[in-house]
Design a protein that fits this description.
This protein has one domain: de novo design (two linked rop proteins) (Up-down Bundle). Helix content is 71%, strand content 0%. The protein is built from 7 helices and no strands. It is mainly α and 197 residues long. Helix 2 runs antiparallel to helix 3.
Length: 197
Amino acid sequence: MHGQHSLIPPHGGYRKLRSFQCAQMVYDATVLFCDRFVDKRSRTHDQMVQAARSGVQNVAEGSMASATSKKTELKLTGVARASLEELLLDYEDFLRQRGLRIWGKDSPEAMAVRGKYRSDQSDKSDGSDVSDKSDKLDSYSLRTASAEVVANTLICLINQASFLLGRQLQQLEQAFLSEGGFTERLYRERQKQRRGL
């Protein structure tokens, strides 16, 4: 303490995470997809949108909770990844049930989507510029492409978000193992104060 460091570590900053940015793109595109291709009155429409939303919101909530609970951050990041897995299955079901092609992982189309995402230098802004989000969706032709192309593009983006969240979970786990949680830091600081350090 004594001005050297804060007991509550830096937290938040989720808008700069590639996992958050990718999950947010999946959410925005899922709303667009569902409005275009899924009956608004169907339960599937609502479930897909909610699963995509959960993928974004849990990353943000976990990042903010990390100030006092790394355990909560780990849990919510895992929930975000699980929500995106649910959404992935919905897109695969959509394609399969309609007899549409599911792109192979290494198909030219999937490679093109992955290449486009890798080259996308996502902005580090606060996310308040709505036109920027619209431009990103347009760059993937999601407003005009067929259901098959849009669903497959989203499968690629969901897989990318899931990969990023998996890497994030590994980093969070390592940080937790090496630094401990908030309660442990609290105890260590209290012990230092009692010893007059």
